[in-house]
Amino acid sequence: DGVTEVLAHRSDSLRDKFVEIPCSEDYDSHRRFEGCTPRRCGRGVSDAIITREEAERIRRIAERGLSLGGSDGGASILDLHSGALSLGKHFVNLYRYFGDKIHDIFTEEDFALYRDVRQRIQQRIAHVFGISSSSMYLTKPTFFSRMNSTEAKTTHDEYWHPHVDKVTYGSFDYTSLLYLSDYTQDFGGGRFVFLDADSNKTVEPRAGRVSFFTSGSENLHRVEKVHWGTRFAITISFTCNPEHGIGDPVLL
């Protein structure tokens, strides 16, 4: 892996850590939105946006939802917006699949907490990058992930490959991850790794920690394989293009 530097240790309590890096050319091949499309690029970590108690409540939402399904392999996905849920080697729409039973799993308070957390993360990203939060839109996919050491059964389970969010998803301009469990306490491996030309920069997950970054090639990244335990996180991403915006999930 070459040289590895730790951007954020699990034991750190970071108010706001930000590293500015030059923007890639990825944004030039997409429509630009003045006052939103990244002109200042970089990556940040904060333990001061979401409390540990809130992270635990959100993790319980993920646990309840994923208890309805789960992948045969090591990576399971739950998307409250689209309803996508890993089930065996496939995905189902949990709203169609479970119908009214969904109200036994989730509450309005769960979705209200989700919205509140999303708004706070959005406001912090906007503040750090010097843009208006109203010019950013939630975009898909936004999803919970549960990772463990089970052998991969499909390509969806191979979460450890390096990738660029802007290339993979197109609509992403700003990516955030809210960690819902603790590195070395709840799981081993599973660190988030930025792959830079000179060295790798790692973020060690801790419950309530938010990692956020511009979504272009300046932030090529991967997640290490989880060796033991279970790693929970939620990916919440934003676009500058209102045509790619989605609403917050609602309990139908």
Quick one: how many beta strands? 16
Terminal-residue CA separation: 46 Å
Number of folding domains?
1
The radius of gyration is 17 Å
Alpha plus pi helix count: 5
CATH T-level topology: Jelly Rolls
**So, the CATH homologous superfamily?**
q2cbj1_9rhob like domain
Series of secondary-structure elements, N-terminal to C-terminal: EEEHEEEEHHHEHEEEEEEEE
How would you characterize the overall build of this protein?
Residues 140-242 form the Fe2OG dioxygenase domain. This is OGFD3 protein. It comes from Onychorhynchus coronatus (Royal flycatcher). This protein is an alpha+beta fold. It has a single domain, classed as Jelly Rolls (Sandwich). The chain is 20% helix and 32% strand. It contains 5 helices and 16 strands. The protein has helices spanning 52-66, 94-98, 102-105, 108-129, 165-169; strands at 4-8, 17-21, 41-46, 70-71, 75-78, 84-88, 90-93, 137-147, 174-179, 187-189, 192-195, 200-203, 210-214, 221-223, 226-229, 231-239. A 7-stranded antiparallel sheet has the order 2-3-13-9-16-8-5, covered by helices on one side. A hairpin with a 4-residue loop joins strand 11 (192-195) and strand 12 (200-203). It is globular. The model has no long low-confidence stretch (mean pLDDT 95).
